[in-house]
Amino acid sequence: MGRSRLASFRWWILAPLLTLLVLAAACGEAATPEPAPTSPPAPVGVTAEDVAAAVQAAVAGMQPGASGMSPEEMMAMVEQAVAAQAEPGASAAEIDAMVRAATSAAAEGAVSTEDLRAAIDQAVSDAVTQAVAAMPTPLPTFTPVPIATPASAMITAPWFREGRRGGVVPMSNTSDQGFTDPHAEPGTAGLTSKLMAQVLRYDHVDTGVIIGDLAKTWDVSADGQAYTFVFHDAKWPDGRDITAEDVKFSLDRMVEEGSPRPRAGNLRPYYAGSEVVDAETLRVDTTIAYAPGFLQYLAINYMKILPKHILEPMENDEARQRFLNNPDNLNSVVSGPFRVQSYLQDNFWEYERNPGYFKEGLPFLDGIRVFIIKNLTKLTTAFRTEQVLMNHNADMGLTLRDLVAFQEDMRGTVTVHFLGATAFDGFTLNHTKPPLDNPNVRRAIYLAFDRLDFINTNHQGQAKMGTPFPPGSWMTPPDEVVATWPGFRYVDSAGNPLTNYYDVPDAVKDPRDLEEANRLLDEAGFDRDQTFVWLMGNAPLHKNMGTLAKQQLEKNIGVKIELELQEFATIFERAISGNYDFFFLWHGINISDSDELFNQIYVTPGGSKNRLNWEHPRIQELFYESAREPDPTARQALIWEAGDILRQGEDHWFGIDWRQNYVAVNSKIQNFFPAQTYQQGNHHEAIWLAE
Known about the structure:
Largest sheet: 6 strands, mixed
Structural class: alpha+beta
Number of helices: 23
Helix content: 25-40%
Radius of gyration: 26 Å
Shape: globular
Distance between the termini: 31 Å
Strand content: 15-25%
């Protein structure tokens, strides 16, 4: 009845409820539930024992009347919440029976009263700890000098001394996108992340801290607009030194205009240029003083340093892309902990330790094998038989229901680590193509989507509404405010507006949204006989989202959709050329900051989710104003203003839901810590295999 069981309950139902009840008892007055957390604890299966433990824990220690409720009323609230959220589901009567069984077991001596009380006390303590940790992200504190750690600190860490050398770890990946140029990579960068070093990176243990990779020290000027980096002694595979010239060349390439830079291009708003001081030192000038996103972006997986002497002589960037997207050439640009041993497109990648790696003693592993497994049944079987020990990137492609079953089946052998609400599901439309170039048509479609239906159908209720910025954080108003926004409104069976519809089984879309959507289409002179083509990727979530979108739009506003199944590479090509009407596209965020959504989706020149350069003048202004604003409260006001513009539904991206990414890791793998986002980590230099 301790920590692991309490953590198994649905985070947006029970955690706020326990916060209300437990803190009410502690403070002697009623507390107000906080908005949903940005990084919730992992949802897993709920057993009968869990239910009894949670009910006991929630009621134990309550002071009658402290929160204005009797113990019986408190019990009823907890029972109702647990009954609604248990997996596979438990009625109130069943919960009562479980509670009585737990109590009688203690009375009969099967469990001592002292043991039961100790377990309950621990559960309540854990609930408070979990609830406090789950509170919304506070307003950011402005720190003139970003917190960072020199790479040299790594070799004094306890894990470095404890690490075990040797072994090859088999991993799984659900796709092989065919991009190995890190600066032009649109998706995960996972397959190349371990091959190439970068200036900075996120610490693999304290994953919110930026540390040096190639950089051994750095400082920032008094005005906050110049960073000076000093680099380690490191070499390319051909024996030439990695110098400040290579870093400058690579940074300049990351921001190069006219070439695809879907992730690396995040540096463009901040990067003013750089100057080589000497072979080991580079000064980087920025456009914004102490910009929140600059060092954070510099540490994500796409900001790889490449050899100037190999790439610069090539005729143009297209030639460089062809070179880098050929895996046979990758070992000539290796500077990271591993190099390519062998590969077979769409089948496997094998890596071996890089003997020339500049960090002595790393990596611990002899190698890594990544198997491309697209069939989910084969994937889970591979985990059960230990043919793979972890998924390579933070997404196995499982629905939450399948993930819960998988986690229960692998309990004690595999741990599922959740990254928090780092995946933003949305639909993108071609705003340059009639009639989608009409803002009224776009707004009508935005209003017609039933986001709660998507959440319940595809994620079994384990997601949050697709607000323009992450829900439950300083970037977005509380849930009860979001519930009043057109497009996010729901009513109960009696037609009453709901402010917390996640808990209501019979919640339906507010008719006012559909009435307004149809009015806007009529006003735009929309031809209901025309058919839009919806590009659909060959993956379960893409298929499910496309099918549900078709059903909703045809039913709610009479918009006809034809689903067209395509490989992801084809979808990316058509996205760049503008040869599409709609497609589902989720965004794995790079950094946990509002700059991320501006950079990738809302401002131009477009990031990976704004290929056709949708633009709104005030949104452009708000990005730069917020990036320059040192006062947290003022910055929040700017972000909320941007959210108010974007939630009108006249842009090119319709947010549907925010959900969690995850990594499944076998207990044989030691020293693994999940990164903050999908786009950080994957170096794998610090993990090792248990004996």
